Amino acid sequence: MQFKLAFVSAALATLALASPTARNEPASSCSTGPVQCCQSVQTTTQAASNPGVLALLGLIGVVLGDVTGLIGLTCSGINIAGGGTCAAQAVCCTDNAVGGLISVGCAPVTL
């Protein structure tokens, strides 16, 4: 039992060290699809401690260790050309294919 706890603790520490730091990019640099406005953005470390996010990722077949960047929750597209705004966190994500519920591989953008 103690070995399992030590192993899980070491694995989570490794994930924390491997998490990339987010930096804001201009919205025009988003080449993976429309800029998203997400109500919540989490690091992989934060997602690892959130059973709800882990369950959603598991349902769509995403392995947390394979995710680079941030994870966006409850996202919707922003029309930048139309002067779109975002009251939460504007991000550019590599995978927006989950109907706005969850987006992975996100990086913050400046509108």
Notes on the protein architecture:
- With 111 residues, the protein is an alpha+beta fold.
- It has one domain (2-110).
- The protein is built from 3 helices and 5 strands, in the order αββααβββ.
- It has helices at residues 2-18, 44-48, 51-59, and strands at 25-26, 36-42, 70-77, 89-95, 102-110.
- Strand 4 (89-95) and strand 5 (102-110) form a beta hairpin.
- The relative contact order is 0.26.
- Residues 1-22 have low confidence and may be disordered.
Task: Describe the SSE topology.
Layout: H1 2-18, E1 25-26, E2 36-42, H2 44-48, H3 51-59, E3 70-77, E4 89-95, E5 102-110
Parallel strand pairs: 1-5
Antiparallel strand pairs: 2-3, 2-4, 3-5, 4-5
Large-scale geometry: elongated
Mean pLDDT over the residues: 74
* SSE string, helices as H and strands as E: HEEHHEEE
Rg, Cα atoms, Å? 15 Å
**How much strand?**
25-35%
User: Which structural category fits the helices and strands?
Assistant: alpha+beta
Largest sheet: 5 strands, mixed
- Kindly report how far apart the N and C termini lie: 49 Å
**Helical fraction:** 25-40%
Number of helices: 3
Query: How many domains, as an integer?
Result: 1
Weakly predicted, low-confidence segments? 1-22
| Beta-strand segment tally | 5
